[in-house]
Write a structure and sequence with these properties.
Protein name: Protein FRA10AC1 homolog isoform X1
Number of strands: 4
Number of helices: 8
Largest sheet: 2 strands, antiparallel
Strand order of the largest sheet: 1-2
InterPro entries: Folate-sensitive_fs_Fra10Ac1, Histidine_acid_phosphatase
GO molecular function: phosphatase activity
Pfam family, one: Fra10Ac1
Order of helices and strands: HHHHHEEHEEHH
């Protein structure tokens, strides 16, 4: 049996190593910390696979393959069988924060998503390298939340997952939406242009109508002036004729009076 002193020493050494490890981790940047964790993961757990016996027994791997869920819901947690608990432990250990995208059909607005493989998790693909399956850019990366719709166990589900992408690949995420927006703007501009042209044609018609109306008014005014001028001439001529007749009569009367005086 270990003595109390050796037990205290063991606990002290373990806590000291823990503090040293934590201090070392805090001094690393995100990428170096990722590499440290992955190296320790391989060192602690390795990549060994279970050796299958010839006996038709159900292994942990078979259980995981049959019971694994992309997203475990609260209803799944309520099933407390050993197989489900094993799947839940595997799920909790699975690095599921980032995903990988297939953008080969991005022009049609179709983006395929999947979780990363163990190799991709260790290499940092989808976290420190662009999450587009066909891109290896590791600079100017941005993180985007994308909606993942999928069918699992005959049930349709959705989950928000993170996708890391470079600037060029990020544009592919909204390519179709942006194109539809551009087409919509072009249609609106054409519609506005046609409306303005129709309005301008309407204004030209109104101007021509106004000009025609003004010409008609001028013609009527000129015709009226001509009629008034002719009427004034007739009146003046009649007036002069009457004046001339009265003058002749007056002269005749005066002449008769003069003859009468001379005869006397």
């Amino acid at each position: 049996m270990a003595s109390l002193g050796s037990l205290k020493s063991s606990i002290f050494d373990r806590e000291e190593r823990k503090m040293q490890y934590q201090s070392h981790i805090r001094g690393l940047n995100a990428y170096d910390r990722h590499k440290k964790f992955m190296n320790d993961y391989v060192q602690f757990y390795g990549n060994t696979k279970d050796v299958h016996n010839d006996m038709p027994i159900k292994t942990d791997q078979d259980t995981i393959r049959e019971g694994y869920r992309f997203i475990i819901s609260e209803e799944d947690d309520m099933d407390s069988t050993w197989e489900k608990r094993l799947v839940k432990r595997y799920y909790d250990k699975l690095f599921k924060e980032y995903c990988i995208a297939d953008m080969s059909q991005y022009k049609m607005g179709q983006i395929g998503l999947r979780w990363r493989t163990e190799k991709e998790v260790i290499s940092g693909k989808g976290q420190f390298i662009c999450g587009n399956r066909a891109c290896n850019e590791n600079k100017s990366l941005g993180s985007y939340e994308v909606n993942f719709s999928y069918t699992e166990a005959g049930e349709s589900k959705q989950a928000l997952v993170k996708l890391v992408a470079c600037k060029r690949c990020a544009e592919k995420l909204t390519y179709k939406r942006n194109k539809e927006k551009e087409h919509s703007q072009v249609r609106e501009k054409d519609k506005y242009k046609r409306k303005r042209e129709r309005s301008r044609d309407g204004d030209s018609t109104d101007d021509e109508y106004d000009k025609s109306t003004n010409r008609s008014k001028k013609v009527k005014r000129l015709h009226l002036q001509q009629m008034m001028g002719g009427l004034m001439k007739i009146i003046l001529r009649s007036f002069l004729r009457e004046c001339s007749r009265d003058w002749v009569n007056l002269l005749s009367q005066k002449k008769s009076s003069l003859y009468h005086i001379l005869n006397i």
